[in-house]
Structure formats: structure tokens, C-alpha cells
């Protein structure tokens, strides 16, 4: 199979002079053939099969490429420029528009490392556009290079969604492994050092679930009233992709519940330690009360201090302080043991 077009001279890494990262034509059997610069069709989708163009929106020539592809309309531009980044699949006239959020290549459990891929699907043509490299689209490119067959534009979209679900599953699995380690540390009483990391993991899962989970309402509306060229097999494929996402999101929700329980347990243990420290401080204060009172009275340097001229006055006062301290200790112990009896 021919290789995808190489970047042109002076073009940024990963795109040619037209802003196209890769271009493939799939025949009626789903076999892909890479298209060079000179073979980029002005109207994709001519004849049997379909064409896939993957575009880098950071490139200056990307808008011209979209114009040549016949996809530079107001609906598409408005959907790409609106503020909502939630993953969804919706119908735009007789085409499908999808917003797919995925993690970047340098993702390291940072919820800010999320980038957006816009997908425009029409009969005979699939356009994907992004500003940052994404893992799921790169996995799709590798699968096409290996010779995987995609029989329709919706099959390519379904493959992309499945890759995203797989990537989310990997993140959930890695998070679960880390939570298992933190949970073991928590059971050993070493909870203080992981409080910040647990809160960070919970924030990551909440952000991933909010951005990567497809909107069920948009998908249901699209599946109930799809464009005329979408077949029953295509609808079944998208439905299966949605169910796979539901399973992954269920695992993510279970992890969030585990993290919440861990945070509650950590807070309870921290409160118990604070109460124990406060109790210890109170006991010390009570036991030191007799000696503080006696030393304060004897240190006023006024007339009439008892035993000032007695030869054994120091030892008598020491014995008195010891007796008072023992009485205070007995009262404290009685108060501690009282609720337990």
C-alpha cells in the first residue's frame, strides 16, 4: 500500500502544504489507498467508496482545503467554533457532525490535556480536523496503514469512537491500579501523604467523564432520525459504540465512588487523629494545673508565704504538688473510663 503524503517543504510537522495530515481513498471493498498532493480530489466521494481527509486546523492552508472539499459551510463552521466541547454526534442536514474529545500524546493524568477532534461525515467523504495530535485518531491511522478495511464513512466514525472508548478504558484501568495502591497505603494508616493525589484523581475522572462521554440525547436523536444514506448496519454500529462507552463510563463512575469513600475515610481518620491530639493536650494541661497553681502562688513574693522559713518546706510543697497531680490524674482516668464501662 502506498505511504501517506509526506509534509511539503516549509510545512509544519504532520501536514503537507495543504494542511492535510493524511488522505485515503477507500474503494467499495473497504481497501484504502493513500492519496498524494496531486491526487487530492476537489470533490471527495466521487464513485464507489469514500475519501478520508485528516486536516490540521493550525495550518494556514486548512481552510482552503475544506473549501475544496465542499465542507466549508456556515453550519459546520458554527459547530466547530461554538464553545461547547462535549463529545456528541448530531445531524447537520444530510450529513453527520461529531465532536470527539481525546487525550493528547503527552497526557499524564492532567485533566487539562484534552484536545478536540471535529468529524464531518457525508456520503462518500469523511473530514476530520484537529489542532493538536490525538491518540485515538493516530490509532485509526495506524489501523488503516496496517490494511484494516472500512466499508463506509460511518464505519470509520465507529472505529474512531471505539478507539476513543479503548483509550478511556486504558486511563480508567491505570487510575484503578493507582487507587488500589493508595487504598493499601490507607489501610496501613499512611493516608496523609496521598490526600492531594486522591483529590487530583477524582478531578481527572470527573473531567474525563464530562468531556469524553458522548451526549446520549444527541446520539439518540440522530439514531432516531438519521440521514437517508445511513444504513441499518451503520446505526447498529453506532449503537454498539454507545453501549461500549456506557460500560467504560460505568467503570469510571465506580472509581469515582471508591475515591469518594477513600476521601471520607481519610477525613474520618484525620478527624480522629486531631481529636486524639486535642485529648492528649487536654490531659497534659490538667496534669500540669496543680504545679502551675502552686508555683504561681509561691512566686508572688508577698509576705505570709507558708513554709518560707521551714527547713523542709520545699519537700513538703513537692509532696503536696505530687498528691494534687495524682488526684487530677485519677479524675482524668475516671472520665476516660467512664463512657467505656
Automatic annotation (TrEMBL):
The keyword Transmembrane helix applies. The keyword tRNA processing does not apply. It is found in: Cell membrane. SUPFAM superfamilies: CorA soluble domain-like, Magnesium transport protein CorA, transmembrane region. InterPro entries: CorA_cytoplasmic_dom, CorA_TM1_TM2, MgTranspt_CorA/ZnTranspt_ZntB. The chain crosses the membrane at residues 278-300, 312-333. It is a multi-pass membrane protein. Keywords: Cell inner membrane, Cell membrane, Ion transport, Membrane, Transmembrane, Transmembrane helix, Transport, Zinc. Belongs to the CorA metal ion transporter (MIT) (TC 1.A.35) family. This is Transporter.
